[in-house]
Amino acid sequence: MGSSVCAGVVARVVNVAQPMVVLVGPTASGKTALALRLAEEFHGEIVSCDAVAVYRGMDIGSAKPSPAERAQVRHHAIDILDPDEPSTAGDYAQVARAALADISGRGGLPVVSGGTGLYLRALLEGLAPAPPRDEALRERLRKRVAERGPEYLHRLLRHMDAKAASSIHANDVPKMIRSLEVTLAARVPQSEQWRAGRDALKGYRVLKLGLNPPRAELYARINDRAAKMFADGLIEETSELRRRFGDECRVLGSLGYAQALAMLRGDMTMDEAIAAAQRGHRNYAKRQMTWFRRDQEIDWIASFGNDVEAQDRALKAVRQHLSA
């Protein structure tokens, strides 16, 4: 009798869902500062959710946490690939889920922080099984981009899958190519495939917090940060990536790097590149908020992550979550 009761207690303990925190928001909203504060306060570690931060050597343009910040709190899913290695949302989800298990297994609190909505969805909800890569189709699509520009590809994607197109920037050629590849191979829009057969994350209680500072202040901060990236060496960083991996390296199409590369090619002046990067980051922030506002589980905080008000509110929410 006693052993049976003991076994039941052990089973319940083993099956208790582990707490975790997800912190989202637009670029330049202060996610890094708030994630660091939460991780320090609650014996946590940070799991980055950023499609560019996974790449080594792409530090300035991705606004990656500094070496000092990464020494302060352990980070995961950063600097795990070279820029010429492919990375998908599914690849990220595998790495991030392994990190969650590692952190929780050592008694820590996982703090997932980032602004790449598709990667977060892959982590939490899983993705439907996707067709394998079709290099011949990819090459044909790349030629279309070279001949007609990325907007042609985006129009094609809108025609085939408007929902998928709404979540992918018109300059993000790799994601557009993959979306078209998946749609054409399966003969079903990728957005419909997303809804089927997902392997949702299990074993965790998730608290979702979102940063939504005033738009005018956010855009001013975005403009300042984009200009600072160039002042801090984005041109030099892009030049080195170009030397090592070539102009066709797909991640050089990312925001900031694309504009720096255009300047290196002589297609833009420095002022034009900075202005284009600022505009691109502002538009990206709009798309991020459109994506995240669909999630009714997010508790929104109307200030920047380094503001005292935001930190106090987030600390309170996490304490309540941990005591639940």
Task: Explain what the structure shows.
By secondary structure, the protein is α/β, with parallel strands linked by helices. Helix content is 56%, strand content 10%. The chain has two domains: 17-127 and 198-323, P-loop containing nucleotide triphosphate hydrolases (Rossmann fold, 3-Layer(aba) Sandwich); 135-194, Histone, subunit A. A six-stranded parallel β-sheet has the order 3-2-4-1-5-6, sandwiched between helices. Helix 3 links the parallel strand 2 and strand 3 (75-76).
Structure characteristics:
disordered N terminus, 2 domains, Histone, subunit A, alpha/beta, 324 residues, Rossmann fold
Give a brief rundown of this model.
With 324 residues, this protein is of the alpha/beta class.
What is the number of strand segments?
6
Average pLDDT taken over every residue? 91
- Helical content stands at 55-70%
SSE sequence, one letter per element = HEHEHEHEHHHHHHEHHHHEH
CATH architectural type of the largest domain: 3-Layer(aba) Sandwich
Structural class: alpha/beta
How many structural domains are formed by the residues? 2
Uncertain segments of ≥5 residues (pLDDT<50)? Answer: 3-14
